[in-house]
Amino acid sequence: MPRRARLTLANVPLHLIQRGNNRQACFFAEEDYRSYLEWLTEYAGKAGCQVHAYVLMTNHVHLLLSADRTESAGELMKALGQRYVQYVNRTYQRSGTLWEGRFRSCLIQEEDYLLACQRYIELNPVRAGMVAHPAEYRWSSYGVNAQGEADALVKPHSLYVALGLDNAGRQMAYRELFRDELEPGLMGEIRRATNGNFVLGNERFAAQISAAVGRRATPGKPGRPRKIEEPKSSNLFLT
To answer: Which residues form the signal peptide (predicted)?
Structure first.
């Protein structure tokens, strides 16, 4: 069975996950993280992608980005993945697959879910028990979005910009978002949409995306379609 085409649209935010093969590690030393981020910055610019948030975990990567073209995210991840695999194989004298395959992704409804998805991404190290607070983790965008650290990679989304009148106000407002934990139901929505390549948003947003891409953008109902029974007599008129 052919695999489903990925849902992508220009200028609609995309949350994506790239995992190590069999959930094995893909970062082994500090230089690996630095190299990946350097090439992510380079290839995002070339592909026309604006990265709003990221986290590099030991065995997977989360990105939140907007793309200038439908093909931009795929072009970015292909070029970045190949460059990084070559680096890892050369550095650690290994061969074979590093990534599990295609990255997983979902289109995001901006007004209701974008900032929640940023928090979901930057809270990953906390949920994993690696740190007590996202500010303690070096390999994420939290330092940029919440503390004003310089990073050429991160491009703020308009909803983030609207959090305050200046950088200090935005950073303070953003830090306030992290006072409360994400609701388990919301985290479940994000995971289901991303792993299933569906949309993350309300019914109206899903309908808009479905119309734009020409196919279903939400999970189908389980089970086989109901069989439509033929009338027992051709003399029956159906109304």
So the answer is: none
